[in-house]
């Protein structure tokens, strides 16, 4: 547009005429693509656009920026190896800004304006649920890299993080067997913690646990002194923590300021990984527990290569963690599905993705063709003074995803 303004009226007229012709062609391609997916831009040229959508600003940026970095690293690696179907992958990066309507707006822009063939993104369930109807209406595809509360399955989403039976339920079982029966539930006030805690309460009823309190605070909340006083009063065996974003910084620092350490109180977090430990401070979190499916210390040949490559690209002080690894894995699973399909078309990629296996840094993962989640090994770890997480328990095998808790007698109480 800057060039057009700097030329004469004749050039403007010619440019406008060419734009009208191009618009007519684009309209024809768009009309064709809406029957499957917005892939018109892949029919010519030597690049294929994919969307990267994360919170690069706001309360969730503490967690999401590094997931973006891992996705970009996977794209760079694939491009360096020759690309996909003769094309280089071109990332189109957008900032969801920790705001759920913004996530929906950016998704619409990526699909309708940028014609991306797929999107890698989101963290919170609120952002995913805002994006879900947009990708469904526009026949797009989202690869979601973070553990979540389950009770969802969309034909337009692949869930690369854990569902509840691969993280939260094993963590509660381990706590009941090893740390006590009295649970204090603390979470951010949105869909993931609310639904996760609904599941935990049913599990406690079934397995002999007791709920002593349940508290929620808004995302970005920073004053936890009143809640910490309540924790002191209730004397729970366990605080099960589903806070997200930088609220974890405030909670754990204020917990330590109150004189409460991991020796005094067992906390189990499901949204604190190595990247959050780096942001909060290892000295603050030393000894506390976390449940995931991958740690930087996970012992696989693929993980050794992954950690080395990530640090080489972004700095030796950077860390990897579960959502970072899942974001990286998501790009490669999509690439494997594209190669198998021989196409970037969403429906063909979805069909090809069923049953795909890939040796990821966390171990071999398999896409479940029934619900588009993946088989994952549950792991429990303890945060150490060096900022790493020492694995102290795992499920021994990759668990089949059960997002609707069909394998639990009490699961119907959650999903009804």
Short description:
With about 425 residues, the chain is of the alpha/beta class.
Order of helices and strands: HHEHEHEHEEHEHEHEHEHHEHHHEEEEH
Structural class: alpha/beta
Strand order of the largest sheet: 7-6-8-9-10-13-14
Low-confidence stretches: 1-43
Largest sheet descriptor:
7 strands, mixed
Helical content stands at 40-55%
* Rg for CA atoms: 23 Å
Protein topology:
Blueprint: H1 2-5, H2 9-33, E1 47-54, H3 61-80, E2 88-95, H4 100-112, E3 119-121, H5 125-137, E4 142-144, E5 157-159, H6 168-178, E6 182-188, H7 191-207, E7 210-217, H8 225-234, E8 238-242, H9 247-257, E9 266-269, H10 274-280, H11 282-285, E10 289-292, H12 301-314, H13 322-341, H14 346-353, E11 357-360, E12 363-366, E13 379-383, E14 389-394, H15 412-415
Parallel strand pairs: 1-2, 1-3, 3-4, 4-5, 6-7, 6-8, 8-9, 9-10
Antiparallel strand pairs: 10-13, 11-12, 13-14
Helix pairs in contact: 3-13, 4-5, 6-7, 13-14
Describe what this molecule looks like in 3D.
The protein has 416 residues and is α/β, with parallel strands linked by helices. It has a seven-stranded mixed β-sheet with strand order 7-6-8-9-10-13-14, with helices on both faces. α9 links the parallel β8 and β9.
């Amino acid at each position: 547009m800057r060039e057009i303004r700097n030329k004469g009226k004749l050039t403007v007229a010619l440019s406008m005429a060419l734009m009208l012709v191009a618009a007519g062609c684009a309209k024809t391609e768009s009309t064709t693509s809406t029957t499957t997916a917005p892939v018109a831009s892949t029919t010519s040229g030597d690049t294929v656009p994919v969307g990267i959508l994360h919170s690069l600003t706001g309360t969730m940026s503490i967690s999401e920026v590094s997931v973006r970095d891992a996705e970009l690293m996977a794209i760079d690696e694939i491009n360096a190896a020759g690309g996909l179907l003769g094309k280089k992958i071109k990332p189109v990066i957008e900032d969801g800004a920790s705001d759920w309507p913004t996530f929906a707006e950016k998704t619409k822009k990526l699909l309708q304006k940028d014609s991306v063939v797929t999107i890698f993104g989101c963290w919170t369930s609120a952002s995913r649920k805002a994006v879900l109807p947009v990708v469904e209406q526009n026949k797009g595809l989202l690869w979601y890299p973070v553990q979540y509360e389950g009770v969802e399955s969309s034909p337009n989403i692949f869930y690369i993080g854990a569902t509840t039976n691969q993280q939260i339920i094993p963590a509660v079982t381990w706590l009941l067997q090893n740390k006590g029966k009295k649970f204090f539930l603390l979470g951010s006030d949105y869909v993931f913690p609310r639904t996760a805690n609904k599941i935990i309460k049913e599990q406690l009823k079934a397995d002999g646990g007791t709920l002593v309190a349940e508290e929620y605070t808004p995302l970005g909340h920073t004053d936890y002194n009143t809640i910490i006083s309540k924790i002191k009063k209730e004397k729970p065996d366990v605080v099960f923590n589903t806070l997200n974003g930088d609220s974890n910084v405030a909670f754990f620092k204020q917990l330590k300021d109150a004189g409460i350490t991991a020796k005094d109180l067992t906390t189990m977090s499901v949204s604190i990984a190595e990247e959050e430990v780096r942001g909060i401070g290892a000295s603050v979190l030393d000894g506390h527990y976390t449940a995931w499916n991958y740690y930087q210390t996970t012992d696989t040949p693929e993980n050794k290569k992954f950690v080395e490559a990530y640090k080489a690209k972004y700095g030796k002080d950077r860390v990897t963690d579960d959502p970072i690894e899942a974001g990286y894995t998501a790009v490669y699973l999509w690439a494997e599905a594209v190669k198998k399909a021989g196409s970037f078309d969403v429906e063909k990629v979805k069909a090809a993705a069923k049953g795909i296996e890939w040796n990821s840094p966390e171990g071999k993962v398999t896409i479940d063709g029934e619900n588009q989640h993946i088989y994952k090994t549950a792991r429990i770890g303890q945060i150490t003074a060096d900022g790493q997480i020492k694995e102290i328990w795992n499920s021994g095998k990759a668990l089949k995803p059960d997002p609707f808790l069909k394998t639990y007698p009490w699961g119907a109480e959650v999903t009804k």
